[in-house]
Amino acid sequence: MEPAIKILIYIHAFFGGIGLMTGIGSILVKKGNALHKRLGKLFSIGMLTSCIISLFICWMPNHQNIFLFLIGLFTIYLVISGNRATAFKHKTKANFTDKLISGSTLFFSAIMIAIGFYCQLKNIQNGILFLFFGGFGLYMSIKDFMFFKNVSEMKKKWLFKHIGKMTGALIASVTAFIVAGIGLGNLIAWITPSIFGTLYIVYWNRKTTPKADKMVKA
């Protein structure tokens, strides 16, 4: 059984590496051009494949890990939701699939937070990570439903939502490389990529908002 699991881990790492490289490439090239779109597609394929494989690995003998399982689900949400955000450039209403994706994330984020509080009460090491990432997931999914409720008024936010979600998925890839690839599993290694990634998202939010306002006025 273990040899088969190792093969899955190698495949998981391979596609994760594709996601990491193409993700970094996509933020370096000009947004919206053909190369950016190609890299974005490869990034999505790499991340989704890697995460789906990880969901199975997390339940296999001697590899059970509820935290990584939930992080895998969260990353899948970021990739899918980030890609679907581009549809709101023209779409005026969220459909059932949009709400199902965000609703599922809301549910699993609540589970992460509950586990996080339990870990804090029992003094379980790194339990704060459940609260940290669960809080992010809860915040993002609630913001999704706020967006869905007023799509026509908040339509200009589609670009920010796309950048924010895809950057979030890249943060997950970078974090996985640091923790699993390099072997740094401390709290700082888990949280630092999220801090820098959040600053990048804030930067693009400020940069894109004026452009969106001009488009709405036009």
Automatic annotation (TrEMBL):
On the tree of life, the source organism's domain of life is Bacteria
Q: Which UniProt keywords apply?
A: Membrane, Transmembrane, Transmembrane helix
Question: Where would you find the membrane-spanning parts of this chain?
Answer: 7-29, 41-60, 66-88, 100-118, 124-142, 188-205
Q: Is Glycoprotein tagged as a keyword?
A: no
Q: Does the keyword Membrane apply?
A: yes
The entry's protein name is: DUF2306 domain-containing protein
